[in-house]
Design a protein that fits this description.
Blueprint lengths: L2 H25 L1 H4 L6 H4 L3 E3 L4 E7 L6 E6 L5 E5 L11 E7 L9 E9 L4 E5 L2 E6 L2 E6 L9 E7 L11 E5 L5 E4 L10 H4 L5 E3 L8 E4 L6 E4 L4 E4 L8 E3 L5 E3 L7 E3 L3 H4 L11 E3 L30 E6 L13 E6 L4 E10 L2 E6 L7 E3 L6 E6 L5 E5 L13 H4 L12 E6 L1
Antiparallel strand pairs: 1-25, 2-28, 3-4, 4-5, 5-6, 7-8, 8-9, 9-10, 11-12, 12-15, 13-14, 15-16, 17-18, 18-19, 19-20, 21-22, 22-23, 23-24, 23-25, 26-27, 27-28
Length: 430
């Protein structure tokens, strides 16, 4: 046989075998899947980098399905609960207000700060309340009576697409430039769930200023920044799927499923000076270990629902630059953390100067910063607390992929919401 055709034939056989293995796993999903762990058992499943400890500070029933959090000036924790993922738009989303009433460092009291949200996925402390992303809106929620429940609910911005929940507007963050940034990626075309997630958005604008600034439909899929008090609203030159972060100098970094970090090198305001200038890209990928890098999970009996490669980054999110000032070397340098929920881990890189941007290198050559043996453990986001600790939000689900991207055989066993009543928030310190 001609060598070229022999290679093609061998590759076809390998691909066919791989596909059959994946189909077999999907067909037997319930049989081979590990059962979920209780909150009491969860800590024993984690392996954290040497020199660090991990402790659980909140778990069910205080909160379920956490995806973002912030801590206020009184030490209270606002947590975004999104139990509706992947398909429930009935308004099950909530913001929970957690507090530690006995001073032991663990949350023991929970109040529903706000409910009736659709698929909320981000939060930021602002003014006397919080900003919450819940496509198509960015909301302002505040408690003016002191009872721990929001009695003000204003829509600050609207018009974002309500698409696959993995791509909705998310993770509001405050920049050193006094602008508020919301991570965002373009609407993802759906073929299976057009009714639920076929909304491509409208112009993005301040609803209280209908004659004010209006961005193009769905902001052309770009990250958006705004200053509500000045009626300012702009697109950036970048996008980010879930998560965004700034370093100590205000450099912006984004991420997507397989790319654990890229920098916006040229801001959109500079391009607006010369709209006829042609450029290839405004972003610079930073990883020196390739797009879709190899990851090193410790998962026991992993439960696969995706049709993507095994052992590589495929669900990177919650990108967080560590600015806490508490961690020891080498974590006292320019460090970024990113969650990888499909592989049940948190990955760490160190950034070094490289021309106008940075290069991101592994801290560990063949292990991760945090891993779990539990296939249901789904780190999805992180937060740097005022204590310098790294807080990790564990979405804790058997199935974390959207059924839009799963095979029919993987969906057939059901269980899309297994674990939706669970919640784990961990604190990592030296």
């Amino acid at each position: 046989m001609n060598n070229k055709y022999q290679v093609h034939f061998q590759f076809f056989n390998f691909s066919l075998m791989l596909f059959m293995v994946m189909i077999t796993g999907a067909c037997n999903n319930k049989k081979v899947s590990s059962p979920g762990k209780s909150a009491e058992e969860a800590l024993s499943t984690f392996e954290v980098a040497p020199g660090f400890k991990i402790e659980m500070i909140a778990s069910e029933p205080l909160i379920t399905s956490p995806v973002d959090m912030t801590i206020d000036e009184d030490g209270r924790m606002y947590v975004v609960s999104m139990p509706g993922y992947p398909l429930d738009k009935s308004g099950s989303g909530r913001i929970m207000l957690l507090s530690d009433t006995n001073g032991d460092g663990k949350m023991d009291k929970s109040i529903v700060f706000a409910d009736g949200l659709v698929l909320p996925d981000g939060i930021m402390r602002w003014k006397k309340g919080v900003l919450v992303t819940d496509a198509p809106n960015v909301l302002y929620l505040a408690d003016t009576t002191g009872d721990g429940r929001a009695d003000i609910r204003d829509t600050i911005i609207t018009g974002f697409s309500l698409t696959n929940p993995q791509h909705n507007v998310n993770n509001p963050r405050y920049g050193l430039d006094n602008w508020i940034y919301v991570a965002h990626q373009g609407a993802v075309k759906t073929t299976t769930y057009e009714k639920e997630f076929g909304d491509g958005g409208t112009e993005v604008y301040f609803p209280e200023k209908p004659n004010g600034i209006r961005l193009p439909k769905n902001a052309n899929g770009h990250v958006v920044r705004f200053r509500p008090e000045n009626d300012l609203l702009e697109m950036t030159s970048s996008n980010s799927q879930f998560g965004q972060t700034f370093d100590e100098w205000g450099h912006w970094f984004g991420c997507n499923n397989s790319n654990q970090g890229y920098q916006e090198v040229i801001a959109n305001r500079y391009f607006e000076r010369n709209p006829d200038l042609l450029i290839s890209d405004a972003d610079q990928s930073m990883s020196d270990h390739l797009d879709a890098p190899e990851v090193f999970p410790t998962t026991t009996n992993p439960d696969r629902q995706l049709l993507t490669n095994v052992g590589v980054m495929t669900s990177g999110g919650g990108l967080t630059a560590y600015l806490g000032g508490l961690f020891p070397p080498p974590f006292d340098k320019k460090i970024t953390f990113i969650t990888e929920c499909v592989s049940n881990l948190v990955h760490a890189d160190v950034l070094k100067d490289s021309g106008a941007s940075f290069v991101a290198s592994r801290i560990f050559p063949d292990r991760e910063f945090l891993t779990s043996t539990d296939a249901w453990s789904r780190p999805v986001n992180m937060y740097i607390g005022p204590d310098g600790a790294l807080y990790v939000l564990d979405y804790y689900r058997r199935v974390v992929e959207s059924p839009e991207w799963m095979s029919a055989l993987a969906i057939a066993p059901g269980g899309l919401y297994d674990g939706a009543d669970s919640e784990r928030i961990y604190r990592i310190t030296p």
